[in-house]
Specification:
The strands form five sheets. Strands 1, 5, 6, 7, 8, 11, 14, 15, 16 and 17 form a ten-stranded mixed beta sheet that branches. A three-stranded antiparallel beta sheet has the order 2-3-4, with helices on one face. It folds into three domains: 326 residues, Kinesin motor domain (Kinesin, 3-Layer(aba) Sandwich), CATH 3.40.850; 126 residues, no CATH class; 183 residues, no CATH class. It has 755 residues and is α+β, with helices and mostly antiparallel strands. The relative contact order is 0.09. 38% of the residues lie in helices and 14% in strands. Strand 14 and strand 15 form a beta hairpin. Bound molecules: adenosine-5'-triphosphate. The site of adenosine-5'-triphosphate (ATP) has 17 residues, from helix 2 and strand 13. Belongs to the TRAFAC class myosin-kinesin ATPase superfamily. Kinesin family. One of its GO terms (molecular function) is DNA binding. InterPro entries: Hlx-hairpin-Hlx_DNA-bd_motif, Kinesin-like_fam, Kinesin_motor_dom, Kinesin_motor_dom_sf, P-loop_NTPase, RuvA_2-like.
Length: 755
């Protein structure tokens, strides 16, 4: 079954203007919309339509959403299926509101309602069933904060800084050392849940006063014992952190670190979804902890994704990104599989204890978390302080089998030493299982033997269930050991968290630098410094940038506010003329080539000089200057057209770019211009191209993924070493890049939406 994707549009909030998202229905029954409509940010006359299973508008109550989307999954949960419900959307779109909700009854979100539904169904089951039924519910709750997993049942001051390690268990990923708490009633749950939520990392940003800084995963484990069988299933309710544009959130140091981590994991998720869609052999699921845990498409769970959207223009590009992501996600097929029940009297289990034909079984992890739906026997444990689970149980033949079994049974509280067949628990007497089982027993019939063995098997399974850490918390691993585990894991994953984080800051710094956002670039470089101490190059870069900002201050004052448009308020239209609109390039370092992201001016006199290693293409400066001086800075498209017409005078390349010449030597028909008279539209185009951000380039009109790659490759091919990167300085140069012609250039240019 494909993942069910539903969209929820939150109400417009105070101070929010200009609603641009609307709903529609592809059916005749317009009372059930299933489409989201949003204008094309580059051409307001055009509307994009996205279709999902259902679309909920701002009138939808928490109750309605739950009844339609989540309540139906409860019966599947009781039927032995796993369920995964997750909220996705950019920051401030209502994910936490949807999943957790408010305190009042009407405002309660999906999670408390789900628990309430589970308890209600459990009671109904027990009441109506003719056989005895018992339902045990336990929960675990953890967050992924800055790429580390923390148990939310633990107070932050008691956490190990390294977090909890992850381990693979078949198709599932388990969190080692996670506690599971039994929850007898809804009240129990609410108490635990509220306490744990206080431990969740939240902070205020400009976009959300209580912004979640982590992905939170609640696991609900259901153990339904019906007569002689027990079935375990799990529901995972996931409140993802939202993608963030730091120019809009106003994030500073600590928030920025969190944001980089959030964006990175969400980017990995998007890459996974894309790779699944393309049916790639490699899905980069291991590239982030969140994707490992979510395990989209591979988790064999009934999956519902709630796409949270904000209806207003300030979120335009975020909404579009989310819609595109959801559009791809809805195509993912999941093979839901029912978790196997265990029967107390499972006769088929007997042969495995007989004779020498015992099959070697793979290692089966016993240390589990909620995500491990291994088989349990009935009589779930209720004693505290029982022996903790072994890491692995090995089924093997010969002596090893005996040992493994001995280990299991020896600790069984159900062991009956007087039992004539307690030899199962005595390895020294079980060297020859054949002889033992088939030796003539004058006083016991074969049926009785079978029965006794059946009973024994059940006991062993029950003992194993007692050994499970389902209720008893896992042993606390010392901080030192956990740190080592974490380091080991990073090594296995080929990552080094700190360095990676530092590189992300460097990347963001360079992006800001390319856009001429010196202050933000400086901020990012300073953050990167924490990760690359004693790096002289970085220090000198910071010093030079600081100096440059200082020097520009008086200049800025002279020019007035319009001159420094690079870091203006997003609502200010001027900003769109020169710097990237938060909408079109919000995604931070995505698709960016770290080593290629800095464009270097050849011209030493260019108005932006940034030491030896970092510089922006001077086209950006000339644009800034042009706009600062130009009274027509706010003109609309037609004004730009006239301006461009004047520019058609032809322009000699100054040799700044050594691109690969096209095979056919045609006179370029595209407009050529002198850098000093570039229009904002042209500057913007060149800026996008020179930034080498695949994501942005492919959004240009007439450019697909392949062409975008070809452009970036052509640019990289034209570089003279890593420290001397090529810059496209005119439309003519752009038109001569491999894979790009004058027509494409014109298309790209005219497709740019300018304010
Ligand atoms: N359907 C809704 N009805 C009423 N208010 C809503 C709704 N959805 C969201 N809100 C409000 O919008 C604000 C932001 O919502 P919320 O904190 O849930 O966003 P979020 O997506 O979880 O953000 P973040 O990713 O930053 O944590 C909150 O004040 C919340 O009450």
């Amino acid at each position: 079954m494909a993942i069910r994707v539903v969209a929820r549009i939150r109400p417009q909030q105070q101070n929010e203007l200009d609603v641009i998202v609307s709903t529609a229905s592809s059916n005749d029954d317009s009372s059930h919309p299933n489409q989201v409509k949003i204008p094309n940010p580059r051409n307001e006359g055009e509307t994009f339509t996205f279709q999902f299973n259902t679309v909920y508008d701002h009138f939808t109550t928490q109750q309605q959403l739950f009844d339609n989307e989540v309540a139906p999954t409860i019966k599947h949960l009781f039927g032995g299926f796993d369920v995964a419900i997750f909220a996705y959307g950019s920051t401030g779109t209502g994910k936490t509101h949807t999943m957790r909700g408010g305190k009042s009854l009407a405002e309660r979100g999906v999670i408390p309602r789900l628990l309430s539904g589970i308890y209600r169904r459990a009671r109904k089951f027990a009441k109506e069933s003719v056989v005895e039924i018992s339902v045990k519910i336990s929960i675990s709750y953890y967050e992924i904060y800055n790429s580390k997993v923390y148990d939310l049942f633990e107070a932050p001051d008691k956490r190990s800084l390294a977090g909890l390690p992850l381990r693979d268990n078949g198709t599932k990923t388990v969190v080692v050392g996670l506690t599971e708490r039994p929850c007898e009633s809804l009240k129990d749950f609410e108490k635990l849940y509220d306490q744990a939520n206080m431990n969740r990392s939240t902070s205020a940003t400009k976009l959300n006063a209580v912004s979640s800084r982590s992905h939170a995963i609640l696991g609900i484990k259901l153990a339904v014992t019906t007569g002689d069988q027990i079935r375990i299933s799990t529901a995972s309710a996931i409140d993802l952190a939202g993608s963030e544009d730091n120019r809009r959130t106003g994030n500073q140091k600590e928030r920025m670190v969190e944001s980089a981590s959030i964006n990175k994991s969400l980017f990995t998720l998007a890459k996974c979804v894309e790779a699944i869609g393309r049916q790639d052999v490699r899905i980069p699921i291991r590239d982030s902890k969140m994707t490992r845990i979510l395990n989209l498409g591979q988790n064999h769970s009934l999956t519902v994704m709630i796409l949270n959207l904000a209806p207003v223009r300030t979120y335009h590009q975020d909404t579009l990104s989310s819609l595109n992501f959801a559009n791809r996600t809805k195509k993912i097929e999941v093979r839901e599989t029912e978790n196997e029940p265990v029967f107390k009297g499972c006769a088929r289990a007997i042969p495995t204890f007989r004779g020498t034909s015992i099959q070697r079984q793979p290692l089966r992890p016993l240390a589990t978390s909620l995500h491990n739906s291994t088989i349990h026997a009935s009589n779930p444990p209720n004693k505290q302080g029982d022996r903790l689970a072994k890491a692995f149980s090995v089924y093997s033949d010969g002596a090893r089998l005996s040992n493994a079994r001995m280990a299991t049974v020896r600790h069984s509280p159900l062991k009956r030493p007087s039992d004539p067949f307690s030899s199962i628990s005595r390895p020294n007497k079980r060297r020859s299982p054949n002889r033992m089982l088939f030796r003539p027993q004058p006083t016991i019939s074969k049926e009785v033997i079978e029965k006794i063995i059946e009973g024994k098997v059940t006991d062993i399974l029950a003992a194993r269930a007692l050994d499970q850490p389902s209720i008893v918390p896992q042993p606390k691993i010392s901080e030192e050991v956990q740190k080592r585990l974490e380091l080991l894991e990073q090594k296995i994953d080929g990552k080094d968290g700190g360095r990676e984080q530092g590189l992300t800051f460097l990347l963001m710094a360079k992006q800001h630098a390319v856009r001429g956002e010196d202050t933000s670039a400086l901020r990012m470089y300073t953050l990167a410094k924490d990760f690359f101490r004693d790096n002289e190059k970085l220090d000198s870069k910071i010093d030079k940038l600081r100096e440059k900002i200082q020097q520009r201050k008086p200049e800025k004052r002279q020019r007035g506010p319009v001159a420094d448009t690079s870091e203006l308020d997003p609502n200010n239209n001027n900003r769109q003329l020169v710097s990237s609109d938060y909408g079109t390039d919000k995604t931070p370092p995505l698709g960016y080539r770290p080593s290629r992201s800095v464009t270097r001016p050849k011209d030493k006199d260019s108005c932006v000089q940034d030491g030896q290693a970092d510089a922006r293409p001077f086209i950006l400066c000339s644009t800034l200057d042009t706009i600062a001086k130009s009274p027509t800075a706010k003109q609309d498209d037609s004004d730009y057209e006239a301006e461009v017409h004047d520019e058609e005078a032809g322009h000699e390349s100054d040799g700044g770019l050594h691109y690969k010449a096209k095979s056919k030597k045609k006179e370029p028909r595209c407009r050529t211009l002198n850098d000093q008279v570039q229009t904002p539209r042209t500057s913007r185009l060149l800026e996008i191209v020179n930034a080498r951000n695949l994501n942005q380039i492919r959004l240009l009109r007439g450019i697909g993924a392949k062409k975008a790659e070809a452009i970036v490759e052509a640019l990289c091919g034209a570089d003279e070493g890593e420290s001397n990167e090529a810059v496209v300085k005119s439309l003519e140069e752009l038109g001569r890049l491999r894979g790009v012609g004058p027509k494409t250039v014109e298309n790209m240019r005219m497709g740019l939406q300018m304010a």
